[in-house]
Amino acid sequence: MRDAMAAARYVLNACAEEGTPINNWKLQKILYELQRAFYTAFDAPCFEDDFEAWPCGPVVPAVYYAYCTAGASPLYLKSETADVFTGEEKKTADEVIEKRSTLHPCYLERDAKKEGRPWAKVFRGGTGSRAVISKEQIRTGE
Hints:
Layout: H1 4-18, H2 24-42, E1 51-54, E2 57-59, H3 61-67, H4 87-100, H5 105-112, H6 118-123, E3 132-133, H7 135-140
């Protein structure tokens, strides 16, 4: 099973190739959508790392800390991502990236933080800040 860093590098490469570099904040939201999409398409996670309910929405801490030195600046990354996804997985990943990479990060954050969704249920107005959003919650949307 791949880790979130491999998926993040894939997303960053895809965005750089399309000329739509993204920042760490937007990367987190796209990774969350990838995880949700893989559960829908394959009934399996895209990667094994857990998301946490941070005030800004769902975050994979390892990915956040790997790119946090860039602040809110775009991440221009080009690295090797061979064999990150299989054929059908690649198609699903590319669809998510294509749909989400051009959206404003505020829209992506609002969508991830809607009432009744996993982030809101875990964050609970701040009392669950930095608590893990379980894979089962992401899989079921509850």
